[in-house]
Amino acid sequence: MKDSQQKTDAYWMGEARKLALRAWNEGEIPVGALLVREGKILGEGWNRSIGSHDPSAHAEMMAIREAGVNIGNYRLLDTVLYVTLEPCAMCAGALVHSRISRLVFGASDPKTGACGSVMDIVRHPALNHQIEVEGGVMAESCATLLSDFFRWRRTQKKASRIAPERKA
Questions:
Q1: Is 26 known to be catalytic?
Q2: Distance between CA atoms of 59 and 56, rounded to whole angstroms?
Q3: Fewest CB atoms less than 10 Å from the CB: which of 13, 18, 102, 114?
Q4: Active-site hit among 60, 66, 134, 140
Q5: What Enzyme Commission number(s) does the record list for this chain (predicted)?
């Protein structure tokens, strides 16, 4: 990969990370995504599954939906998706179906990652479209954001379970 491409990937991942923080501020798992074509953002998203009661409202899905509306087409040719966490199977399928050219993700997901960790949907040879994948861009920063969020959430849950002291 060219040095200039690495700088571009880091820039866009930094922007996706800002969207992940937006998810955190809304009480959602902090994942952010941007869909870019030729240096222009076509769609952006952050996790909204909890607040919208929609299991498909992942950051990637939100970015893809917005981009499709913005360009008036579900085929998102010649685009790059930047996402802070490796996509799950649902999102990976949507990436293939929408014909995204390249995926750049931050942290790997060893439990549900479908772009190389648990399975590799986006590069499966039996499918009609494969996606170029670059994982690990700003991986530590993206992973730290997630682990900090879950640590904070466990602390919040623990605090809510502590009963107030009773007066005798």
A1: no
A2: 9
A3: 18
A4: 60
A5: 3.5.4.33
